[in-house]
């Protein structure tokens, strides 16, 4: 039974993502569910969201999600059959922005390929 919370988390992430995509519109460039964490009794779910946009757009997205929490929760209850529908709590995370920054830093390093990655012959 240790896998059940993990399965519920993934199911909530998937279904809630589809519900948000279908029902809500945001001014931010990208609003994405990064991860879901449920309590052991499955009564509360913490939804970690990544929002690409200005700080005002990030706050607007979080506010819109919190304002529509009951609609999202009831939609989730129709799609996911559990004894108790988890109460949703939304949180912002900046994981996408950190990932983009890491890729930019790696691109700036200009590391030459390793010896084993170089071609065995040279075209002249």
Structure in words:
The structure is a single chain. The protein is of the alpha+beta class and 124 residues long. The protein has a single domain, classed as K homology (KH) domain (GMP Synthetase, Chain A, domain 3, 2-Layer Sandwich). Helices cover 48% and strands 20% of the residues. It has 4 helices and 3 strands. Strand 1 and strand 2 form a beta hairpin. Helix 1 crosses helix 3. The radius of gyration is 20 Å and the shape is elongated.
Distance between the termini: 63 Å
| Total count of strands | 3
Mean pLDDT: 82
Task: Write down the domain tally.
Answer: 1
Number of helices: 4
Give the strand content. 15-25%
Helical residue percent band? 40-55%
Please provide a brief summary of the model.
By secondary structure, the chain is α+β, with helices and mostly antiparallel strands. 48% of the residues lie in helices and 20% in strands. The protein has one domain: K homology (KH) domain (GMP Synthetase, Chain A, domain 3), CATH 3.30.300.
Task: Considering the chains and any ligands shown, give keywords for the structure.
single chain; 124 residues; alpha+beta; GMP Synthetase, Chain A, domain 3; 3-stranded mixed sheet; 4 helices; 3 strands; 48% helix
SSE layout and pairing:
Elements: H1 4-23, E1 30-38, E2 44-52, H2 55-67, H3 69-79, E3 87-93, H4 95-109
Parallel strand pairs: 2-3
Antiparallel strand pairs: 1-2
Helix pairs in contact: 1-3
């Amino acid at each position: 039974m240790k896998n059940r919370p993990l399965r519920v988390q993934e199911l909530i992430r998937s279904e809630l993502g589809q519900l948000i995509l279908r029902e809500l519109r945001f001014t931010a460039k990208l609003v994405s569910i990064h991860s879901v964490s449920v309590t052991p009794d499955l009564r509360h779910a913490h939804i970690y969201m990544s929002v690409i946009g200005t700080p005002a757009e990030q706050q607007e997205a979080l506010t819109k999600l919190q304002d529509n929490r009951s609609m999202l929760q009831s939609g989730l209850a129709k799609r996911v059959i559990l004894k108790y529908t988890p109460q949703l709590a939304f949180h912002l995370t900046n994981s996408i922005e950190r990932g983009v920054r890491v890729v930019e830093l790696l691109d700036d390093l200009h590391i030459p390929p390793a010896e084993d990655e170089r071609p065995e012959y040279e075209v002249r």
